[in-house]
Amino acid sequence: MWRVVTSTIAALTLFSTVAAAQQPCTTDANRVVAEVYRHTLERGADPGSQTWARQLANGQLNVKEVVRRVAKSQEYMQRFGQTESGEAQPFERAVARLYRHILGRQPDQGGLNNWARTAQQRGLAAVVDGFVDSAEYNNNFGEWGVPGSGGLRFCANGQSGADQQSNAPAGPLNNRRFQTMDVNNDNVVSRREWRGSAESFRSHDWNNDGVLSGNEIDTGRFRQGRNAEFEDFDRAEEFEWLDANNNNRIEQREWHANFRSFERLDRDGNGVLSRAEFAAGRDTGTVATAGRAIAVGGDRQWVDTGINVQAGDTVSINANGQIRVARDGGLMTAAGVASGRTDGATMPNANVGGLVARFGNSAPVFIGESRTFRAPRAGRLYLGVNDNFFDDNTGQFTVTVDVN
After folding, report:
1. Which residue, 89, 118, 188, 365, has fewest beta-carbon neighbours within 10 Å?
2. What is the rounded distance in angstroms from the CA atom of residue 332 to the CA atom of residue 327?
């Protein structure tokens, strides 16, 4: 992969933050790489992650370089680095995702505009380098911290976890909504002070220490330390609580959940949530999609679509494109082929190379090139390729999903 070295422009604000409730470092390279995958690729680690873990463990790479390379990988660029219709300028949404995946925060408007222009002129890889090499990244994560992990760091140079334990006190609350809950003014919000449900409290309590503090209640921070299902739309919170500046709409910087859930609720794509959009998501737990294109690589067993459905929802899935199963195999569409290596495949009795789906941990459903059906159960929608070995597959399907 090529690399462009770029200086940090003024739009990247320097954050002199100390991670609240910072964890001791860990010597478990697999755990660290799995956390990079979870936050950056928004999926679990696969066998391919072992290469990064070995290089991290033997000192060939630090965590910072693992983050850089994962963010510049083909998978990342296919899934998160494409231009989309409805953007104010090309690559705006891709750059916004890099803010969350690399810097662990929502973008500021000036920085978003500047880095989107950089992406147009020099490619998204230049933005990755700019973010990873920035003073903000180095201040917050250094060479060994994992963005979006709530403080996880790899132990460098033989240090033990105890060597890097931090006892930094919690800083002042900078979010008006949480200030009003902090009745005893101790700069943390306890469960007794919390006005929402127990589920809502737990989804904010990234480090499970029983109080909310630091980045857990910092406006615009990405909710970390939970899987995608848990981070998803928090139905217990009211519109007024999230609308911190009382302008009768919820802006991205006011959102406290997974940004993908914000995008799904934002039906008109204008970057803010109206009361109607918010209420629709709260009442149904799902949002009708508008056929957003999703890349499903041939080398991926499962791809998280970011779409949650309810049992009985009408789901329409259409797939274009071709993949090649095995380097010497022929090209095939999402319909797959009836013969081939099916022993141990996701669906052994279905066409190999075909598009398949599942809802949460449900049994897989064969999709092929096109299918409309009712969701058998509630859960996150995952799409994948029906095969028993993925490392030598190439190509991808471009899939659109509509849920109503």
Report:
1. 89
2. 13
CA-CA distance, 231 to 223, in Å (whole number)?
7
For residue 371, give the H/E element and its range: strand 370-374
At 215-265, the pLDDT tens digits run 565 544 444 434 333 434 344 355 656 666 667 888 876 665 556 567 767
Residue in 324, 325, 336 with CA at minimum distance from that of residue 369 = 336
Residues of the chain with CATH 2.60.120.430: 293-403
Greatest CA separation for the chain:
68
Q: Contact at 8 Å (CB) between 295 and 398?
A: yes
- The closest of 381, 379, 226, 395 to 325, measured between CA atoms, is 395
- What separation in angstroms does the CA of 322 have from each of 335, 390, 399? 10, 15, 11
Instruction: Cite the residue boundaries of each domain of the chain with CATH code 1.10.3130.20.
Output: 29-164
Tell me the pLDDT tens digit for each residue of 35-60: 899 889 888 888 888 889 999 988 88
Q: How far apart are CA 81 and CA 125, in angstroms?
A: 9
What string of H, E and C letters represents the secondary structure of 163-209? Answer: HHCCCCCCCCCCCHHHHHHCCCCCCCEECCCCCCCHHHHHHHCCCCC
Angle between helices 49-57 and 63-71 in degrees, nearest 10: 160
Report d(CA 150, CA 137) in Å as an integer. Answer: 14
Q: What is the residue-wise DSSP string for 266-282? A: -TT-SSEE-HHHHHHHH
Amino acid letter at 43?
R
Q: Which CATH class is domain 29-164?
A: mainly alpha
How far apart CA 281 and CA 288 sit, in angstroms, is: 9
Q: Per-residue pLDDT tens for 257-303?
A: 556 567 767 777 788 888 877 766 544 444 444 455 788 888 778 88
How many whole angstroms separate alpha carbon 124 and alpha carbon 130? 10
28, 161, 166, 206 from 25: Cα distances, Å: 9, 4, 10, 17
Predicted TM-score of the model (pTM): 0.41
CATH superfamily of 293-403: Galactose-binding lectin (2.60.120.430)
